[in-house]
Amino acid sequence: MATQTPEIVNAALATWLAAHDEVAPDVIEGLYVVGSVALGDWTSHSDLDVVAVVADPSDPDLANGLAAAHELVRDRLAMAVDGPYVAWGDLVAPAMAVQRPWVLDGEYHVDGESFEINPVTWYTLHRYGIPRRGDDPSAIGVAHDVEERRSWVAENVDTYWRGVGEALAAGLGASSEAEWGGEILEWVALGVARMLFTFETGDVTSKSGAGRWAAERVPQHAEVFDRAVEVRASPGVVARDVLERCVQVTGEIVAAITGH
């Protein structure tokens, strides 16, 4: 899928690469854009998701250099550039829990595991990734097994999205507010829609694409998904009853994927 990269994103990527090359020359061997940019759904309130490739991400000296580069990026960019720093060998093996430097919400980490090292990210890189440094993703041999993606989705829905739906229900129950921030609807409704899309089709799609697909796939909840797509494009508030229906459809999707 050919995607036109917004100029603001091109400028941010150039700044990101320049900062790393300045502080840690020759360290960044590959840089690939994934996420909403690669899927043609980037908005002005989106983060920029990447997968960066270095020779040895377990080297503590290299991690220190990446930390210094990240500070430069924070000084020079208002936009968060998120994602893991991995080795080429990580990409050709099934995505698994490994400790690698990573950035989330603009914060650099060297402890714990990066959520973005998962089968869905690997597949997105393989099929839709946009190279900014390094070979075309199709030439790398990125691991991408459809059953691994479906299995990962089922586990993620069971261990994460089920709790998100329950937390939203509890929040609504504890408040009498008539209107809520639309970002809540966008996050939950489009998040579970993407999970269902990948589980059923084996492919990945953007948040907006998943919302439009889900409106047809689950027509009795089309209003929820249509409104979620609207507030993604133009942030605003949503009515309480829309979020209440979002809780319902989240539970239905969780049950459909997990069987319980």
Structural overview:
Helix 6 runs antiparallel to helix 7 (182-201) and helix 7 packs across helix 8. The longest helix is centred in the middle third of the chain and has 28 residues, at 146-173. The model has no long low-confidence stretch (mean pLDDT 95). By secondary structure, the chain is of the alpha+beta class. The protein is 55% helix and 12% strand.
Task: Please describe the topology of this protein.
Layout: H1 7-23, E1 30-33, H2 35-38, E2 48-53, H3 60-76, E3 81-86, H4 88-92, E4 102-104, E5 107-109, H5 119-128, E6 130-133, H6 146-173, E7 179-181, H7 182-201, H8 207-217, H9 222-233, E8 237-239, H10 240-258
Parallel strand pairs: 2-3
Antiparallel strand pairs: 1-2, 1-6, 3-4, 4-5, 7-8
Helix pairs in contact: 1-3, 6-7, 6-10, 7-8, 7-9, 7-10, 8-9, 9-10
What key attributes describe this structure?
260 residues, alpha+beta, six-stranded mixed β-sheet, two-stranded antiparallel ribbon, 8 strands, globular
Mean pLDDT level: 95
How are the strands of the biggest sheet laid out side by side? 5-4-3-2-1-6
Structural class: alpha+beta
User: Which descriptor suits the 3D outline?
Assistant: globular
Number of helices: 10
Sheet-strand content, in percent, reads 5-15%
